[in-house]
Amino acid sequence: MAGSLVVKVTAGADAPERCAQAFTVAATAAAAGVDVSLWLTGESTWFALPGRAEQFELPHSAPLPELLHVLLTTGRVTACTQCAARRDIGPDDVLPGVRIAGAAVFVEEIMADGVRALVY
What we know:
Layout: E1 4-9, H1 16-31, E2 35-40, H2 64-74, E3 76-80, H3 81-86, E4 98-101, H4 103-111, E5 115-119
Parallel strand pairs: 1-2, 1-5, 2-3, 3-4
Helix pairs in contact: 1-2
């Protein structure tokens, strides 16, 4: 498959179906060999922390820790700078492989040639 996919997830446990859809689409694309960048914003920013994905439950959905593992090992996972700061999350708090970056990096990623972007 050609191109890249940037998925921005704005929902967390507050909107579990939307959150799970974003992680599922991103992890499925990554498993299929697509270059994937998942952005955690809003309430999904909590999933950048150790143990948080394990607390997420949604019947008939793939386990969030497994989806996150796929993305951390095959793609990129970024927590929004402002969203992290609002939750007192710093670089030393996040899972290994999660970076914290802001809007300029997001815009750079979505404006690259061959990139498709989805927002959930």
